[in-house]
Amino acid sequence: MTTPGPEPEDAPGLEPGGSVRPGDTPPDAGQTSGLSHPQPIPSRKPAVIALIVIGILVVGVAGFFVLRALDLL
After folding, report:
1. Strand, helix or coil for residue 36
2. What is the dihedral of CA 34, 38, 40, 41, to 10 degrees?
3. pLDDT score recorded for residue 39
4. DSSP letter at 58?
5. Alpha-helical runs (H) found in the chain
6. pTM attached to this predicted model
7. 45 vs 41, 49, 50, 52, CA distance in Å?
8. Which residue from 23, 5, 3, 28 is spatially nearest to 13, judged by alpha carbons?
């Protein structure tokens, strides 16, 4: 299976051997690896609040089962 694309004889700027003439190649592309401006640092507040809530729930459930095992509830 071949990939779709222009036939070599239909592509503009190709010499008979498949090479291109000097000056026909596009200029090098600009570098895009850098950022244009500093990215904001995301807040850690929601993650800390979620961990605190989960911790309170775990302690509450564990306390319930401890009190249940001691027959205090």
Report:
1. coil
2. 70
3. 79
4. H
5. 45-69
6. 0.46
7. 12, 6, 9, 11
8. 23
